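Each lists chain and fold; for instance:
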Amino acid sequence: MTDYGREPQFGVFATPNADNADHLMRVATLADERGLDLIGIQDHPYQRRFLDAWSLMAVLLARTERVRVFPDVASLPLRQPAVLAKAAASLDVLSGGRFELGLGAGAFWDAIGAMGGPKRSPREAADALIEAIAVIRAMWSDERSVRVDGEHYRLAGVRPGPAPAHPIGLWLGVLGPRLLGELGRSADGWVPSSSYVPPEKLADKHARIDEAATEAGRDPAAIQRIYNVLGTITGGESRGFLHGPPTQWIEELTGLVLEHGMDTFVLGTEGDDLAQFATFADEIVPAVRQAVDAARTR
């Protein structure tokens, strides 16, 4: 059993369909008004039906008042990291500290290549992500000028700024041992999806993060564990993990906190169903908070 003792947080995973922009605004309003913590936006610039994630996130932040927004996760090969860091800091300043940064090494390499991006091997993608973390941290620093020497990314005496309005969480959507280790050493959060990392696979990946964090002198509990939970909230019988009535969701999410080490849940549903998002916010979220508090008190 793994429980890092962090306060649970909750959000929604919104699909940036260009032909459904009005619905996206309704999703954001619901998340903001119902007290959810996060809105996650997938970043696939090569998907012709999708809006640009960064343009959309700016609008969502302008249309909301309290909910935080993050790319879930940003496509590094198509986002130069020094400029990405400046964009993230700018959104954070403009929103009063409501932006976090999810970052991935890249996927769908043929599509990335078709847009003029690099087609990297797994090792090259990992190298580039590690260099990008150093670049982003440098661009968020209060140093007069910064330098980073890398094979994929370099800074040569650039002056960083503006500073973010709050310590932006740098969250990595990574799965392999090497990058999980880097996450433990230098990042603030881990963003897996339930479809790729089911509960039975979480423990091994937590262990890799925690070992690297401890070796680097960091507290593993300081690293946020964000789970994209992709499923269906139903009014009937269970159809398996994350497909069932609210009582099942309450039990499963509580178990994910207390037994599997996750602390933040970003719900994705078919068609970004507003009724399911409302049930999640109104019924499931408060019940999970209460159940976690009760179990920890005992």
Notes: Residues 9-230+264-269 form a domain with the TIM Barrel fold (CATH 3.20.20.30). DSSP finds nine helices and 13 strands in the chain. The chain has a mean pLDDT of 97. The first strand starts at residue 9 and ends at 14.
